[in-house]
Amino acid sequence: MSDLTSVGDADNWMCWLCDKPVDPDASINSDLGPSVDNYAATRVKKGAVYVERLAHRACNTMKGKHAPVVSWSPDLFVVDPSPLFEAVERLRTKGGREIVARCPDENDAAVASDWLLDRLSRLAPDLKVATQISPGGGQFVLAIALR
Prior knowledge:
The protein has 147 residues and is α+β, with helices and mostly antiparallel strands.
């Protein structure tokens, strides 16, 4: 197991789950204190490959009780947004393409696409994804796919 400082530096002292800053000087017993999360980045036939990620202690603890929730930005105008953590996991294991949201116009879809690529670069830095915007039915569908 790596030390907390090297994991924190690698993640720029941002919680990989909630995408909020982690105070490196906070107590590890505090809910907002730093902790190292062993995340199974890939699954193989004889086990899993784990990656150490920085998380708030509370985020890490809750991840053990419930599936993690990665929230969409409230500033985006998206309809029916998919749970991002699950979408990334399906994309990682099955490949292909995941539709993650619908937007009422192309500009909203472009803004959501930019935000999504930025957020996914921190959520799953090992996964190289691209977004796709497709018109249809008077709306625009936003999807992610492996590059």
